[in-house]
Amino acid sequence: MTNIAVIYYSSTGTNYQLAQWAEEAAKEAGAEVKLLRVEEIAPEAAVSSNPAWKQHLENTKDVPVATTDDLEWADGIIFSVPTRYGNVPGQVKQFLDSTGGLWAQGKLANKVVSGMSSAANPHGGQEQTILALYTTMMHWGAILAAPGYTDPVLFAAGGNPYGTSVTVDQEGNMVEDVQAAVKHQAKRTVAVTEAVKNGLK
């Protein structure tokens, strides 16, 4: 069976929802799936200053925190992260920076990876955030499973070829309908992962 880790960071829930859709689709595609969150390291004062952030953290406290052991277990990894100034959040960067030991042992090479993102406006850095995420993956020697334009559902979601991305309004609602695109991307990631895993035997 193909092992897929769906790893997300979410302050108020958007990327958690994207990750849940990806988890569902990857399971439908026959994969063994772990849904994991990146550990929150923001100061308590910062979290408490935003009621939605504090509530979401409380609501998801039982979701397992991603570790490097999960990366080693996974054949493929789907990341879902919000943009922070066109880059990944500091929480995600810290997690990625902890992978040096696995990288040095070559244990991240040939992992299949795919990324998704969100921002508060249509040009808020979603594409750049995914590309920034992929930069780390390239150093790993990972294989990117970007959605490209492999299914018409991608256009209804905004047509981001690097990975599904969504705009979130001031009330926290997703502007574009991206559920089908997320599920297609997840199933494509499983298919590519299976092909790589079987081809390397």
Question: What report would you give on this structure?
Answer:
The structure is a single chain. 44% of the residues lie in helices and 16% in strands. The model has no long low-confidence stretch (mean pLDDT 96). The longest helix is centred in the C-terminal third of the chain and has 21 residues, at 179-199. It has helices at residues 14-28, 44-48, 51-59, 68-73, 90-97, 100-104, 126-140, 153-156, 179-199; strands at 3-8, 32-37, 76-82, 112-119, 143-144, 165-167. It has nine helices and six strands. Strands 1, 2, 3, 4, 5 and 6 form a six-stranded parallel sheet that branches. Helix 1 (14-28) packs across helix 9. 42% of the residues are buried. Strand 1 (3-8), helix 1 and strand 2 (32-37) form a beta-alpha-beta unit. It is of the alpha/beta class and 201 residues long.
Write a brief caption for the model.
With 201 residues, this protein is of the alpha/beta class.
Q: How large is the share of residues in beta strands?
A: 15-25%
Give the distance, in angstroms, between the N- and C-terminal Cα atoms. Answer: 14 Å
Largest sheet, in brief, is: 6 strands, parallel
Secondary-structure-derived class: alpha/beta
**Radius of gyration, rounded?**
16 Å
Helix percent reads 40-55%
* Mean pLDDT figure: 96
Number of separate strands:
6
Q: Low-confidence parts lasting 5 or more residues at pLDDT below 50?
A: none
Number of helices: 9
Overall 3D shape = globular
Layout of SSEs?
Layout: E1 3-8, H1 14-28, E2 32-37, H2 44-48, H3 51-59, H4 68-73, E3 76-82, H5 90-97, H6 100-104, E4 112-119, H7 126-140, E5 143-144, H8 153-156, E6 165-167, H9 179-199
Parallel strand pairs: 1-2, 1-3, 3-4, 4-5, 4-6
Helix pairs in contact: 1-9
